[in-house]
Design a protein that fits this description.
The structure is a single chain. The radius of gyration is 16 Å and the shape is globular. The longest helix has 10 residues. The protein is built from seven helices and eight strands, in the order E-E-E-H-E-H-H-E-H-E-H-H-E-H-E. It has a single domain, classed as Alpha-Beta Barrel (TIM Barrel), CATH 3.20.20. By secondary structure, the chain is an alpha/beta fold.
Length: 199
């Protein structure tokens, strides 16, 4: 039984490898509720980590997918509070392909992160051609690829485009210096399932 009075937001902290807290990512879609005001963080959320964040976190990442993304793209003007410099909208690869032209128009005013780097059938040109501000690697993708010859080239291409790359994982399994040497800029402490975008 679902408690309809319970706010669905769960947040995941984003850390730098020196231990500094850099921001937060919502792991449930932000747009479940109507926008009543311009507040980014929800004060009624009893499990939110916003009281533990810096006064002005570097990053607030808000996932958008499915109907939430469609509503956003139909009238982005009503979501002007999401244009704040530290707010990033997370999308997955399937939505990038399906909503390409509308997302490109929105990217003129909003910042986007990719949270689904390489599902089967990925066309790298689609990712390279979109003006992402950041990319989050899954734990599985990282561990399958970080020792491969091509991995540093992937990160180098991101750096050249000034795209930040973080790792989303329940816990770090390598020394922090190792991640920093790979030029990852931080990690997101995964608190839910391996998939950011649920239903």
């Amino acid at each position: 039984m679902e408690n309809s009075s319970y706010n669905p937001y769960v947040t995941e902290r984003i850390h730098r490898f020196d231990g500094a807290l850099a921001g937060v990512c919502y792991s449930a879609p932000f747009m479940h509720c109507e926008q009543e005001n311009t507040a980014i963080l929800n004060g009624r959320n009893i499990i939110s980590l916003h009281n533990q964040l810096p006064d002005t976190p570097e990053l607030i990442i808000i996932p958008l997918t499915g109907n939430n993304l469609v509503r956003f793209l139909q009238d982005p003007e009503i979501y002007s509070s999401l244009q704040d410099e530290n707010v990033q909208l997370a999308i997955n690869y399937a939505d990038l392909v399906q909503q390409d032209s509308a997302l490109r128009r929105a990217a003129e005013r909003f910042s986007f992160w990719l949270y689904d780097l390489a599902p089967p059938g990925t066309c790298w040109k689609n990712i390279a051609a979109f003006p992402f501000s950041g990319i989050a690697l899954t734990d599985e993708f990282f561990h399958d690829n970080y020792l491969k010859f091509s991995f540093p080239f992937l990160l180098e291409s991101c750096r050249e485009r000034e795209v930040e790359v973080i790792l989303r994982t329940p816990q770090l399994t390598l020394p922090a210096e190792h991640y920093a040497q790979l030029n990852l800029s931080g990690w997101q402490e995964q608190r839910t399932s391996s998939t950011l975008f649920e239903g």
